Amino acid sequence: MNKGIIEKAAKIKALVLDVDGVMTDGSLTFDENGVEYKTFNAKDGQGIVMLNKTGFVTAIITARQNGTVRHRFNNLAMTKLVEGCKNKIAALKDIMIEYNLQPYEIAYMGDDLPDICCLKIVGLPSCPNDAVEEVQKYADFISSKNGGRGAVRELCDIILKATGKYDDIVGSIINKE
After folding, report:
1. How far is CA 101 from the centre of its chain?
2. Looking at residue 67, what is its pLDDT?
3. Is the CB of residue 38 less than 8 Å from the CB of residue 83?
């Protein structure tokens, strides 16, 4: 792992995520009534849960509004959900104010053009392996995994390891009786 990535990850206090193409593989599935369905990765979810349990702010900023995303957000006990968002940078700045965060304390993972505004200001700009080329240009960390296929978990593990919290949280999960 790149030493610069580890140094940046050691300063992180918050993880902010896009949904489609990051927490999911980017597929949009609708039934005949127009109800939207999404598929999430359980390993990504475990990474988010581990961040939550060790005191990190975990947030979602998404342009879409979807009950499935709200359910996943609540199921993972994440900190902040901003949905139906047309101005991601404004939402990110609001999160920074609400949780007293500096840009260098935030890791953001996005996969497409609307995420670039956030990637440009955060301390650890990140993307899945299958993010569009323009996004990859702004990412310091490009996951070896695709969106919805473990990219979020890979970033969570890097942050937990760099901040010295990985062994304790993993140990508490493994040793539960």
Report:
1. 16
2. 87
3. no
